[in-house]
Amino acid sequence: MPENKNTIHFSLGSLNDGAIESKLMEEVQNVANNIFDPNTDPKAKRIVTLKLTMNSADDLKTIQLVAQVTSKMAPSAKTGSTLLGGLNANGEVELSELKSAAPGQMMVDVDTGEMLVDTGLPVAEQAVVIDMQTAKEAN
Q1: Does residue 56 sit within a domain?
Q2: Which domain of life is it from (predicted)?
Q3: From residue 23, how far is each of 16, 32, 40, 50, 69 by CA, in Å?
């Protein structure tokens, strides 16, 4: 085996007209975007991998080089909500997001001062009118 001196006469930037370096930098950019994505953990580790596979021909005169660039990103952060559900007058299931702190609790829109029901819709859009006297007599 000859002594270890630099006898490689190409660079990643020159191989395949720069395609390998271009793919590598594209993945680095994707990882950078993932780091600054507000829906991911900025401290999570990300990995960019450049894999070079080399296969020689039987005569050892040519070598096929295949490059593959991959990355492992941080997953999106979990997010959730509380839904209110029930059957409507037609027997169909309806779901709405709970916007107030508790089911049935009204709230005030801080921007408009308008009263809203627990799903965030204006009270005026709700067709439900409760007769408190009838409700009291029923209990």
Answers
A1: yes
A2: Bacteria
A3: 11, 14, 23, 9, 7
